[in-house]
Structures are given as C-alpha cells and as structure tokens.
Amino acid sequence: MSKKQVKRMYFKKNIGNNSGKVKLNEIPITTLFEYFISDKKIEGLASRTLDDYYTHFSYLMDYLQSELVNTEFKTSIFKGYIAYMLDEKQLNPVTVNVRIRTIRAFLRYCYMQNYIKDPIHEQFKPVKTIEDTLESFTPEEVKKLISVIDDKTYKGFRDKVIIFVLIDTLVRCSELVNIKRKNVDIRSGHITLESIDTKSKKTRVVPISTKTIKLLKEYLSITEDFDSEMLFLTYEGTTLSDNTVRKNLAEYGQIAKINKRVSPHTFRHTGALFYILNGGDPFSLQKILGHTDMSMVRKYIQMTNTDVKKQHNIYSPLNKVFK
After folding, report:
1. Residue 278's domain is classified under what CATH number?
2. Which end of the chain is less enclosed by CB atoms within 10 A, N or C?
C-alpha cells in the first residue's frame, strides 16, 4: 500500500467521517489547529488574520506547556487560561478578548466537526471591557502632524498623501497598502478597494475629496516611473508595508509631540468623527467604513463634551422655535 493510500485511509478514519455520533480518536491539539487553519484558508481569510490566529494559539500553548489531545478538552482548562491572562499576566481585557475569540472559533470548529463531544465554546464568553476610549485627533493636532512632515522629500510627500487618504477615506492600514494605481479614479473622485483586500471580503468604493484628489494626482505623476501596479511605494519602488506606515506615523507623532496614539486606526476614528461633526449622516458613514453593524459605527464617533456642546449650539431644538 502506498503512502498516499495510507494517508487517505487515515484522513477518512480520523477526519472525513464526522457525521453523527462517532468514537473520538485521540488527536493532538496542534494537529486539530492545523485542520482549523486549513478550513479558514478555504474560507478565504487574509494571511494577516491567519498569522494572528497562529500567534494567539501560541499563547495558549505557552500556558498549557504540553500537548493536549481532544479527549482531554475541558471547559475548566480554557476558563483557567482566561483567568491566567487576566490575573497573572494582567493583560488588558481588550487583548484577552482578541485571544478568546480565536480560541472560541477553534473550539467551535472542533465541536462542529465532532472532534470533541461538548460545545465548550458556549461555556465561556468574552470578558466585560470598559467602553473603547480611543481618542481622536483634534483638527489642530492633525495640522500639527502634517506640519512636521518634510513634503519636499519623496518619503515626506508620500506620507503626507497617506495621511490625507487615511483621514479622508477612513480605510484600514491593510487596505491602504494594497491599493493599486488602477483603483484610483481621479476623474470621478473615488478609490475602489478590492474584495481580496477588505476585512469583509466585499469590494468597497470610498469617495475622496478635492484636496486629496489634488495630492493623489501629483503623487501618481511622481511615481509613474516606478512602473509598479501598487499605489504606495518605498523610495526604491517596492510595495510599502503596513508596519512601515505605522512606524512612520508614530515617529511623526513623537516629533509633533502629540500625546495620543498616532496610528492608522486613530486616523480612522478621527475621520469618522469629523464626518459626523461636519454634518455627514451615520448611514453613509457606515458604508464608507465598510461595517454591516451600526453598533460598530457608533464606536467610531465618540464625541467629547466640547464636540457635543458645539453640535448642540448648532442643532438645539430651541433654534426651531426662536429663529
């Protein structure tokens, strides 16, 4: 019997026959996780998401300190892991929840495929967290950030364009670095985000304003000689990585002495808040952000008391009475 036939028989015995009640074979947790990852690849998850899954799983393995087989899976083990992260490691609940979601997805897969008997994933939930308090930039802080960039250099001008695109289109950093030149429509004023590059795996069209169009037009002209299909490039003409974008923005934040997290995500929050403050409606904002759930949009438009006061002065109900 060939190795291929043996492998096929093993697969049928241990993986393929999972309908109804079956006798559980002892399968190591690491092997099950590889099955899980293979399933996620078929679903079309982004490479970065898969890498995050591996990272979160490695933290679980560090806690277990030894291999675990499926017949040993118990709710107490995974609840103990949550307590370990919160109490001993003293991790932020937000960080803990990111790891919990990965483990729950993995355990749900194991249960649905009949690798484990009990729906362990239903026995624990994400921990309660304080409402997201990520601060947005003020208009003055955005101006200050842009002012410290030397836009007479290629890198500086490119980074200035990136900031304009981030705050104007509300795109994620992973979406930004995957924009192609052909995706930018200067004439109609929009950028197309291809489905393979978006979190929802759906094509999204985001509008760009006149100021951003002007900068993009100049940037497209400057980078034409690079002969690359990608929009944002390094000085050598290679594709810009999201880590480089994050690093550069953080450095500008230090130079400008902005006492807030200067990151692509903060620009996304800021753009969403400014959109609403400028009179934009939440429904069009939801479409631009690419969210299917309005509750997620609400998290992006947290207003300070000053913002609320300004809006109230403009839209006070009494303004309708005393014109």
Report:
1. 1.10.443.10
2. C
